[in-house]
Predict the structure of Cytochrome c oxidase assembly factor CtaG.
Amino acid sequence: MDNLSSISIFGFVANWSPYYFSFVVFMTVVYFLLTRKWYSNFEGGRPSTNREATTFGIAMVLLYTMYGSPVDILSHILFSFHMLQMAFVFLLIAPLLYFGVPAYLWTYFVNLPGFRQFFAIAKKPLVPLILFTGIFSVYHLPIVLDYLKQEPILHGSFNVLLFMLALLMFYPVFNKVEPEEKHMGGLFKLLYIFGIGALLTPACGLIIFAENAVYSTYTDGDAWLSAMELCVPSGVLDGLKGQGLISGPEYFTNASPRMDQQTGGVIMKVLQEIFFGFMLGHLFFKWYRDERKDEDEVTRRSIEEARLQKELFNQYR
């Protein structure tokens, strides 16, 4: 059946997870309490701006869309939706949090015990860059992904790890904790973003150009049904299996597994280019403004020094 809307057979809870919705609402409420009511409890605290609040809200809506809406079920049915989920969560939502969360909250968070040591890794920017792209690539090795998708606790833990590493990877570029003079220069930030894209390309290439579909959790009926337990209540899934309604992803689409896999690799690469394009534009114009600001400051100082020298000269004429 080439009808993805038939995922409604899994029920409301599986399609629109109220548990994840509650989590996102809780995080949003805590955010507004911290930034609009309790901000005075933090050093340098201030109310969040409308732009920050809107950005954080967008990040939370996207997070629920990726993990609480039918997109999550579809990510276990079709590899293309899995890669869509990966791109949005790790390459868009993670950096958005640097724009949505005020600097004083980031400072407090980064200096908590344990997190201080974790974010200290970003003092050597190549380390978090290699860590994220390396572990992301390992995660998408067929033997690793197929195993993790059938182990709910490990799968969840690995996704949390990847998200934390994504935050760490973007820390050298977008953090508001370190003073500007300790940041990488504008040109190095641009090269850093290019580096992320370059190191993610081999994983996308292997997925796109593989001669066959390589993930059993998207091709083998038993492995696929086991992986579906990550997002569908066991009682619902057992009932559907008992009635003989589903046996694999072919029930939902006529796309071949290889075509679905190739589409997933292309989606990841295209979305990566789009997201990084916006980041590069933001960094370039910020770098340009900073350079112009420095030029203006140098000019102002030169004029001021010339004026003082002229006044001094006039005193001794």
